[in-house]
Design goal:
Blueprint: H1 3-25, H2 49-73, E1 75-79, E2 93-98, E3 109-110, E4 115-116, E5 133-137, E6 152-160, E7 164-168, E8 171-174, E9 177-178, E10 213-217, E11 224-226, H3 232-241, E12 246-249, E13 252-255, E14 258-260, E15 262-264, E16 269-273, H4 283-286, E17 289-290, E18 294-304, H5 317-321
Antiparallel strand pairs: 1-2, 2-18, 3-4, 5-6, 5-18, 6-16, 7-8, 7-10, 8-9, 11-15, 12-13, 13-14, 16-17
Amino acid sequence: MNPEERKQILAGKGKKIQRNQKQADSGQSSEGNPKGKGKGKERQQPMTWQEVTISWAKTILGALLIVMIVNGLLIQSFVVPTESMEGEVLAGDFLFVNRFIYGGSTPQTIPFLNIPLPYVKLPGLRSPEKGDVIVFIYPGDRDQVEATDFQYYLKRCVATAGDTLEVRNGVAYVNGVKEISPSKVQYMQNRGVRSDERYNTFPRGRQWTHDNWGPMRIPKEGDVIPLNDTNYQEWEIFIAREGHDVRRTGGLIEIDGQTVDSYTVERDYVFGMGDNRDNSLDSRFWGFVPVKNVVGTPLIVYWSWQNKDARNNEYSLGEKLGRIRWNRIFNSVD
């Protein structure tokens, strides 16, 4: 091989080295393939409709679980359904309720379905006190052991466990002392008493009215109630609501199959009345509220609109939007 041929061969090798270097810099292998092609993770395949459905279901269930926990432990939304607290709050007010103060709980209902759930109540900062506006689980009509539907009610706590309450001519007296009337309490002019009212008030058999009710002690855990033929109908539903089978056979009263002449109260109770005293179906008509059923106290009105007309007919959404009560929004509740 002469010197000229050797120079040509060396020059060809140099060009090949330069070409390979350029390919490496541009992400190409020496074979012209993209650098690393065929290596590492493969391209992700699109999800099937089953996978999409499961993913959405997990997201929705997770959101519902968060809502249930927040509603149970901290803050809950409540819509005022009636005019029984008119003056302080109005029918159609949307309230934020502080549940932490009396003790939050595990979820009490399935959201949007209003299906009740067994729940455990946690300790609170304090118990309901006289004068508090309280939101509670409705215990049921006077002659019902359980309410037909799960509902939250809003009333003012006027007496607590161990107090003796009496209503004289519409004015409440607690332990013989006239209550400090709420600032916005209302009385209707010439309300009168319906002819059948004395047969519909709580408890059965007393024939009291909304204007003249009591005196009666608000049950407290540990109270011993004598039972006999005279007062059996007054306490039958109360005892059943505490979870017992109670019946009268001949002249004997039986609780859970045992003949008794007294009953020991197992819970503390409060007595709720509406500030609109002559237009309120409250504890005077359906009985005591277990403290366990009290879920919270309102904080503020965050939305408000007139939701029904004078005949109690529901307005349409468009009509409600035209009846927004802007002056109610962000009002506090005392």
